[in-house]
Amino acid sequence: MPDAFDPYREKLVVETNTVWPDEFDHIEPAERAKIEARLHAAPQTAAQLDYVRVHSGFCRQITVTAADVAGAV
Which of 1, 6, 47, 51 is deepest in the core (most CB within 10 A)? Predict the structure, then answer.
């Protein structure tokens, strides 16, 4: 189950990661970069957001969904 957007954890984010499911293999790297930048700039809009605990804080991990890709169009 994805995490809810958490302003407290956001202040402790030291890494970001974007997971691209196989269904999005057709998206060009330049377009992926735009989508990733948009999602990480406004993580509260991501459909699937997880905060992964790392030694020095949190890693914000966003798993891209069809809704996220559709929002990029």
Answer: 51
